[in-house]
Amino acid sequence: MHRRHRSRVEADRLVADYEASGLSREAFCVQYDVTLKSLDRYVTRYRKQKQNQKGEESQRFVAVEVSRNAGTGGELAVLLATGRRIEVKRGFDPGTLRQLVAVLEHA
To answer: In terms of pTM, does the model score above 0.90?
Structure first.
C-alpha cells in the first residue's frame, strides 16, 4: 500500500462514507484502500470538527433589554431583532413556553 495525501474535504467525505457504510474499520479500509491509522485520524478530526460546529451554533447571543414598568404584574417580554415580540404574562403555562423556546431554537 502506498501513501496518499488526501485533502480535508476528501478525508471528511471518506469518514462520512465510513459512518454510513456499516462496515467494520478493517473491512472499510480494505475496500477503500486506506490505512487504519489514517482512518482513525480522519474520524477523530471529523468528529472534533462537528462537535465544535455544534458548540458554535448553540452559543449565539441575543440582545436583551430589561425594563420595569409599574403595574405590569410580573410580565416578561422579549423583543427579537426581527421585530417580533414574545410576551409572557402572570400565570403562564411553563410547558407551553418550553415548547415555544424549542421551536424557536430549531428555526
So the answer is: no
